[in-house]
Write a structure and sequence with these properties.
heterodimer; A: about 550 residues; mainly alpha; MetI-like fold; about 75% helix; globular; B: about 350 residues; D-Maltodextrin-Binding Protein, domain 2; 11-stranded mixed β-sheet
Chain lengths: ~550, ~350
């Protein structure tokens, strides 16, 4: 009997170690290899790169700017997403799942496409300035956001809003309103009800979302480069310039280490905070209902209106442009052209082929990330002390510059049995590294909220570990799991991070097709790029809705 | 389409059957823009019995960096797409095996940069200012005829360029200014850049943003800059990729002396290849008239082989500068960082 228990424990422990092994092979090994080559090119440790950083006023400023803009972006994103998350958790209204699905689309769009949409809307010659100039007979454009910090912040909220919305509302939906009712009976009203009861209950999710948004905006690259322009630079931008343009590996490695080190400390603090926060909440699912009172109605419809303005106008501007670019009125020719190989080029990929390539990479990455992320989350709920140090480690791929990791792959994975440098496998594997933290962060708050006594009770009654998982854990973590899966899918569809620096065979994904089209002059190239971007949004919107459905299929009505 | 694929599979099977004893594969590593007509490549593969595989490694800079990092254990057999701005970095890392193709006799001397033939020139292009033809006509403004004109108050707020630290045409334009104004004397390239900043130059991170979002001449753009740094081959592209085809080109290039920078792209055999002889055949193929005539419409660059004929749109709309700036790759490599640093200091900080 004892021996059987031991074996089971060993099996359990070794399964939980799989994600750690994955991280060691595909993240730490390449990363340490590139650091070794960069910082000790002749076998002798050379830290002059660090000296240069510390003594340079420019890099100090860059660091503070990076932290500052990330903090501001996080505060604004969470502040804006919080009321919306409440609405999505508590109320039912028509078009809810479509709205949620569309709100996640910015995540997959290439920055330069978003920049073009922003420019069409709020640029000097954009729609809004046109309207305002006509309306008030102005001879100058009243909105001058081009190349300002404000535009960077708006874009960051635009990109990250749905991340915060989804993470917080999915957690909120599992919080019982009983506490609230009790508080109300005891006389809590207004801000006290919000501050001490409602917000306190979702604090783990708010913290988790803040951390992700902070990391994302801390390592912001395209938004800062293209919308912010050259007077702004984040550490990530500097790493890219040093590594990719100057092949100055020493400075790039030093900058990468600063970035990773800062993130590690931040994550340690976060992990501690989150652990203190765990309360034995009697989690149970709340059924969302329709808004009744005028106050409720105005909250719900106000949220919808706000989302429409912030998120949908740029997206709609994009779709409209895909039909109107070229100034010949409404036309579907760019969509038609997508499937015509005018010049018999080898780079040509018909849309269906690009869609299926993207979808297969994304499905593979999502599956791997969900499995590994779930195992990681279980490992991290263990009470052993070492998990305190492990948790931050799993977040590091998000904080690591894509160019650094890409170079690491080149020098580390170059010999059998790991000669993966030119393998198409490397694409989903690199996507998984970036996607896994999303799954872990979305699942962990709910997983920590499950009282161990429930599981123990079930075991005593004779439930097998799988039954416990299916009947007790899954219903409670399913919402978080779906959020994680959606973002894992999104990371892969939008091709964030390391995969840009990975060798590719002749099967382009949708974003790659967009980049290639935008690399050449001419109306039809531009029109096709916008058409492909619109298709990318369509494919993602449908996929998000399908992923949401999976939850209901898998566990029935909970 | 299905029938085509099927016949392709059958043809491939027949050929692979015919040369089953010895299938030779050459992997070309290239930048993302490497493009060609499938039939041209298929004809070569059928004739030579060599199977070509292509791996794309990002832009020219990423291509060179990844190759430098994997020197000795290369990702492929042949590299295509290193240009004269990155050439020295590649040569210093000893990436290539020398090979002198017999077809070089059709290539002008000025393109052959390396005497040891470690790399072979394949195509060239000129980074030139492009302008919005309609804007200059309607404003009755003369088109600038030299770089110095750009600092003239008449052209305030009209120019968009790329950051040389992140963009290859941006770097080319910076080097054009270095060549035109020099690094010493009363009025250096940095003085010129100070004047450009005073004249409200717009600096984009990359070509796509500058050309599609800021430049007013590109089709569908909301941009308000009628002057942009682009390529001499961009005006024909505006015509070829327009639908319907316009009667006159909406944009044109300025090709006055010392305003354009010549970029030459090379191919080289990577040290570590398994099949040197096949790799040499591939270099010959890249220089052959068949491939060279395919280059303009697939990659919007010009062939180096003098026997290759240009397509009509290129003859009509592409201007080739008579005296572009040509810099020695060794000089570029020695000074690239200094120039970019100095530029960043003056323009951005």
């Amino acid at each position: 009997m004892i021996r059987v228990a031991n074996v089971a424990q060993w099996v359990r422990a070794s399964i939980l170690l799989v994600p750690l092994l994955f991280l060691a092979i595909f993240f730490f090994y390449p990363l340490l290899s590139i650091f070794a080559v960069s910082l000790a090119p002749d076998g002798q440790l050379d830290l002059s790169g660090f000296t240069r950083l510390v003594t340079s006023a420019y890099y100090r400023e860059t660091f503070f700017f990076t932290v500052g803009q990330a903090a501001l972006s996080t505060i604004f994103t969470i502040g804006v997403a919080l009321p919306a998350a409440y609405v999505f958790a508590r109320y039912q209204f028509p078009g809810k799942s479509l709205l949620l699905s569309v709100s996640t689309l910015p995540f997959v769009l290439p920055t330069v496409v978003v920049a073009a949409a922003f420019n069409a809307l709020i640029g000097e010659r954009g729609v809004i300035n046109d309207v305002l100039m006509n309306l008030f007979a102005l001879d100058y454009a009243p909105i001058q956001l081009e190349r300002t910090l404000a535009l960077i912040l708006i874009a960051h909220v635009f990109y990250n809003f749905s991340l915060a919305l989804r993470m917080i509302s999915s957690y909120w939906a599992t919080q019982s309103p009983r506490m609230e009712e009790a508080a109300r009976v005891l006389g809590a009203h207004g801000w006290r009800l919000w501050w001490e009861i409602r917000l306190a209950a979702v604090r783990p999710a708010i913290l988790a979302a803040s951390v992700l948004v902070f990391i994302f905006t801390f390592t912001s690259f395209g938004v800062v480069l293209i919308l912010g322009g050259i007077q702004f630079a984040t550490l990530e931008v500097e790493i890219f310039r040093q590594a990719r343009n100057l092949l100055n590996l020493q400075t790039a490695a030093a900058l990468s280490l600063v970035q990773i080190g800062f993130m590690f400390i931040l994550m340690l603090v976060y992990t501690r905070l989150q652990r203190q926060n765990v309360t034995d909440l009697q989690a149970s699912t709340v059924i969302a209902r329709a808004p009744h009172t005028p106050a409720e109605k105005s909250l719900v419809y106000g949220t919808i209106a706000f989302m429409a303005i912030l998120l949908f106008t740029p997206l709609i501007a994009l779709v409209i442009r895909s039909f109107t670019v070229g100034g010949e009125g409404f036309t579907t020719r760019y969509y038609a052209l997508l499937s015509t190989n005018v010049r018999g080029s080898v780079l040509f990929a018909p849309p269906l082929e690009a869609i299926s390539t993207s979808l297969s990479f994304a499905t593979a990455s999502t599956l791997i990330s969900v499995v590994l992320g779930l195992l990681t989350a279980y490992m991290l709920t263990s009470r052993a002390k070492f998990t305190r140090w492990l948790d931050p480690l799993f977040m590091l791929p998000l904080a690591t510059s894509a160019v650094t990791l890409g170079f690491g792959f080149i020098i580390a994975l170059d010999e059998p049995p790991l000669n993966l440098r030119t393998s198409p496998l490397l694409i989903p594997l690199s996507h998984t590294l970036v996607a896994m933290p999303f799954v872990v962060r979305s699942v962990l708050p709910a997983l920590r909220g499950i009282t161990p006594s429930i599981r123990e009770a079930a075991q005593v009654m004779g439930a097998s570990p799988l039954q416990v998982l299916r009947l007790i854990d899954l219903p409670l973590i399913s919402r978080g799991l779906i959020v994680g899966a959606v973002f894992a899918f999104t990371v892969s569809m939008g091709e964030f991070g390391a995969s840009i620096f990975i060798a590719r065979p002749d099967t382009p994904t949708m974003p790659i097709v967009i980049y290639r089209l935008l690399g050449q002059p001419g109306a039809t190239n531009y029109g096709q790029a916008l058409a492909m971007s619109s298709l990318l949004m369509l494919v993602c919107a449908i996929s998000f809705i399908l992923i949401e459905r999976l939850r209901k299929l898998g566990i029935g009505e909970f | 389409m299905k029938a085509f694929v099927l016949s392709l599979v059958i043809v491939t099977l027949i050929f692979s059957g015919a040369s089953a004893q010895q299938t030779r594969t050459v992997t070309i590593i290239a930048h993302d823009s490497f493009n060609y007509t499938e039939d041209v490549m298929n004809a070569f593969q059928a004739e030579s019995g060599i199977t070509i595989e292509v791996l794309r490694l990002g832009d020219a800079g990423s291509l060179v960096n990844q190759s430098v990092l994997s020197a000795g254990n290369p990702l492929g057999d042949v590299m295509y797409g290193v240009d004269n701005t990155f050439l020295s970095r590649a040569l210093d890392a000893d990436l290539f095996l020398p090979y002198e193709s017999p077809l070089l006799e059709n290539v002008d001397e000025s393109f052959i940069t390396d005497d040891q033939h470690r790399v072979t020139p394949i195509n060239y292009g000129d980074v030139c200012l492009n302008y919005d033809v309609g804007y200059f006509a309607s404003e009755n403004l003369p088109v600038p005829s030299s770089l110095a004109d750009l600092a003239d108050p008449a052209y305030t707020g009209l120019l968009a360029v790329q950051n040389p630290a992140t963009s290859s045409p941006g770097l080319a334009f910076l080097m054009t200014t270095v060549a035109a104004f020099g690094e010493e004397g009363d009025y250096t390239y940095l003085d010129f850049w100070r004047d450009l900043v005073a004249n409200d130059v717009y600096i984009s991170e990359d070509w796509t943003d500058a050309y599609y979002v800021r430049f007013s001449g590109s089709a569908g753009s909301e941009g308000d800059r009628p002057l942009v740094v682009s390529y001499a081959s961009s005006p024909p592209a505006e015509v070829i990729f327009a639908d319907p085809v316009p009667e006159t080109a909406p944009t044109a290039s300025i090709v006055a002396d010392d305003t354009c920078f010549r970029q030459i792209e090379y191919a080289g055999i990577l040290d570590g290849t398994d099949d040197l002889e096949a790799a040499q055949q591939v270099i010959d193929f890249l220089l052959s008239v068949e491939f060279q005539e395919d280059v303009p419409l697939q990659m919007f660059v010009f062939p180096v082989n003098a026997e290759a004929e240009l397509p009509e749109a290129f003859i009509e709309y592409a201007a080739i500068p008579e005296n572009p700036v040509i810099l020695d790759p060794a000089l570029i490599d020695a000074n690239r960082e200094t120039w970019i640093e100095a530029w960043t200091e003056v323009v951005l900080r």
